[in-house]
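Annual report, structural modelling task.

Input specification for the fe (ii) ion complex:
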Amino acid sequence: MFDVANLRTLYIKYGRIQLGNIERLFGRYGDEIKLKIEHGISMSYEVPKIMMESNLFHESYYDSFAIDGLFHDIGRFKQYEMIGSLSDSELENLTGIKDHGRLGEILLQSFEIQKQLGLVKNPYLQVLQKVVGNHTKICNPEYRISLSDLNSIFKEYSLEEIINYRKWINLLIGAKIQLVVEADNVELLQNIITGKLPIVIYSEKEKWVTEEVWKLFIENKPIFISEMKKHGTWSNNSGVILRFGLLPQKANIRSTLERILKEDYFRKMYEKMSNEVVDKEGRKTVVNDPLIKEGYLYATLLTENIIKMSDIIITREQREQALELTKKIWYK
Ligand SMILES: [Fe+2]
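The model returned the following structure:
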């Protein structure tokens, strides 16, 4: 169904053309836009890897997951071209399009774009459009599924059979969205560790992590950047703990957490963060904030407990039990 290597080449070509457009329009483009091209390529390896680790799909799905990863953020370039920023709320305010995922879905409906990306008449296109369109926020409730509902459907039936039969197509789309989001989070961690996404902290006066962010993290409550900014509790440093909290709280598949522990991602991220702080004048100092170290230890402990308590798929109940146990040990 796919020639993945060729699709990667076409994706890079498309990305470069978009970068050219952005440069002409704004006279600049941030490194984050360049990173987006690399991000799609990395995700085209990461998503199928997670699919294999999860053991939920027959091997024949491998390439389709590579395609999901490759194109999931295809809307990002157009978003920047349209509004000059990567903010989804700005996109919605200015264009009415909900987010970059939905924008990507719209792009993938255009024959011109399909031609550019080598997807014309591809029987998988209809699934891809929905995965891309819903990866930021699920619009169709039928895609809101639990991975534990899959049983062995996708081990017994091939991708072609599912597409032709159609009965389980929404289940497939829902499962794929979850795997893309899972891989996206792992990618974020890896990018911090390798230094592609540098953590640069500008504020010397503030604590690295505000008490409020720390409390939300320990309570397992989601940290909303926009909310924190509104309340004046956001600091650049909050992002650090936000990223720490991300994976143990969001991963749906046990093997993802097992890999994170095995590769020692939390410690590596801690080492990345504990070194230099750059102030606005570019002066560098070395700091070590104890809360950051606690964040690393807490994330590790929570991850261990979730693994201990889960099957292949992590249910909400198992996550909550693990959280209770972690708090008990932590505050002992
Ligand atoms: Fe995205």
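Residues 4-180 form one domain.
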